[in-house]
Amino acid sequence: MSLDNDHPIVIIGAGPAGLTAAAALVEHGFTPIIFETEAQVGGISKTLVHNENRLDIGGHRFFSKNDKVMTWWLERMALQGAPAADDLALARAVPLSATPDAPDPESEDRVMLSRSRLSRIYFLRSLFDYPISLSGSTLAKLGPVRIARIGASYLRARLLPVRPEASLEDFMVNRFGRELYGLFFRDYTEKLWGVPCTEIEPSWGAQRIKGLSVSTAIRHALRSLFGRDDSVSQAETETSLIGRFLYPKLGPGQLWEAVAEELQTAGADLRLRTEVIGIRFEGEAAAAVVIRHAQTGDTEELACSGVLSTMPLAELVTCVRGREVPAQVAEIARGLPYRDFMTVGLLVSRLTLTNPDASPVLDNWIYIQEPEVRLGRLQIFNNWSPYLVADQSKVWLGLEYFCDEGDEMWETPDADFAAMAARELASIGIIDEADIVDTVVHRVKKAYPAYFGTYARFGEIHEWLDTLPNVVVMGRNGMHRYNNMDHSMLSAWAAVDALLGTGTRAAVWDVNADDTYHESADDRNAPSG
Asked: What is the 3-state secondary structure (H, E, C) of 460-509?
């Protein structure tokens, strides 16, 4: 079956990959149908609203080494032309658009802010630079004995690296030394994944940590002595070390909602609260999808000429009808694990945590390394955008917990979970429970594709997927790959090209595939469709 609008191309999922793919198809003259199970677009990049306070699930920096991605974002939301509320309050210089009619965030909503990036590690009841620096403050907090052990273990790792790197622990130890890994990486990572680092594939490190190591952090610190790249592009800076990023005034979902409106104006058919429960094949090719409407429970079959899927691979495999799925593929798909996610929105009148000089904490997020609490990461939404907070005299926090659907944390009633989270945050000296104004709890299924379980056999699924002539996967869950938002967009462009025959499926899988992509300035224009 040829691709046409009489039998439209179906896109499963209205997150960043799905909406980016739809926009690319519209540019090619197609009018796709997008099915989304949720009532809101954006996937995990949506913005939730609770009592006029906006919550960003997970925190989304709008930054990419890829020029096409950066341009695509700024074409839809222009860079600020005047300082934001917090820039004004702090008398903080910020890069502004030189365009005469650039929007003022104090009076216009559809605007992209230029944000200072700061994230630190909370450990030993102190804030440490992330990545760890060799500043006098860091050395004083760690003490001479720890410093000596860190130096000796790093030297050992450089002289006698673990070969081959069989696990994420090996990957991290080779780059940071065993002592630094144990102090600042192991506990948070094991909170995130729920298994020891020895059970996680090293490819996770290659995709998420990439070029970061002690040596790159030292080089970055030395370069910073001679000035910091404060431009929007930061072309020569490692992504883990960037000092600035873009951010929509009202959170990441604001951009994706604008894209959804743009698509609908162009004729694309976006159907929310509609789940794809089947893909019917005729011979080798997909010929129709079966959908279920959440409000009524009714099912419907719609003919299609192609499918671009962001649904989890285990679900995709069970959707196949009329074509045999090899038993080993079904087995591997069922065994691909995920980590689920819970976030507690906590509105407080103040933080008890301050910097050593008593100045306010300006971190976007803080990694919680204290082992006695289950809290993994703390977002301070005011520092992402002051406009996420209805009353800017209050502090709006996001407390992140990693769990498995159905486990004890997941099943805890909202009020009890929020109370537990507040107690944890107070117990490590960040808030006073008496200062709490409001709370909300939100759960996210399949937030993080995991690199253990049957993942070691993923190549067999990959090979089978490449035999589906008019079905192409993309995005974080569609590829079972821990992609950033820009990776998902790049995979969407490559997937559209592959479906239209103007590109290859290999280009989809090349996105975020190794430790050279995205972190290297040489790859600024890696696969962009």
From this structure: HHHHHHCCCCCEEECHHHHHCCCCCHHHHHHHHHHHHHHHHCCCCHHHHH
Q: Any idea how long the chain is?
A: 529
Taking only the tens of pLDDT, the chain with its 529 residues reads 578 778 999 999 999 999 999 999 999 999 999 999 999 999 999 999 999 999 999 899 999 999 999 999 999 999 999 999 999 999 999 999 999 999 999 999 999 999 999 999 999 999 998 877 767 778 888 888 998 998 899 999 999 999 999 999 999 999 889 998 898 888 888 999 999 999 988 877 766 665 555 555 555 444 544 455 555 554 554 544 458 999 999 999 999 999 999 999 999 999 999 999 999 999 999 999 999 999 999 999 999 999 999 999 999 999 999 999 999 999 999 999 999 999 999 999 999 999 989 999 999 999 999 999 999 999 999 999 999 999 999 999 999 999 999 999 999 999 999 999 999 999 999 999 999 999 999 999 999 999 899 999 999 999 999 999 999 999 999 999 999 999 999 999 999 999 999 999 999 999 988 533 333 333 333 332 2
User: What are the domain boundaries of the chain?
Assistant: 9-43+255-336+451-523, 126-224, 338-449
What is Dmax (Cα atoms) for the chain? Answer: 72
Superfamily of domain 338-449: Protoporphyrinogen oxidase, mitochondrial; domain 2 (3.90.660.20)
The DSSP output letter for 362 is -
| 378 phi and psi angles, rounded to 5 deg | -120, 120
Backbone angles phi, psi at 440, to 5 degrees: -155, 150
List alpha helices for 267-341, DSSP H.
313-319, 327-335
Residue type, position 249, single letter: K
CB contact at 8 A, 304 and 8: yes
Tokens in use for 197?
A: 């680092």
For residue 315, give the amino acid letter.
E
Specify the 3-state DSSP secondary structure of 27. Answer: helix
Instruction: Report d(CA 385, CA 319) in Å as an integer.
Output: 40
CA distance 193 to 211: 21
Which CATH superfamily is 9-43+255-336+451-523 part of?
FAD/NAD(P)-binding domain (3.50.50.60)
- 43 to 111, 128, 389, 461, 488: CA distances (angstroms): 21, 32, 22, 24, 11
User: Which distant-in-sequence residues (6+ apart) come within 8 Å of 258 by Cβ?
Assistant: 76, 77, 110
Token readout for 168 is: 């994420």
3-class DSSP state for residue 231? coil
What pTM did the predictor assign? 0.89
Give me the phi and psi of 201, to 5 degrees please. Answer: -60, 140
Closest CA to 26 of 361, 292, 267: 267
Report residue 240 as tokens: 């883990």
Q: Which residues pair with 401 in a beta bridge?
A: 342
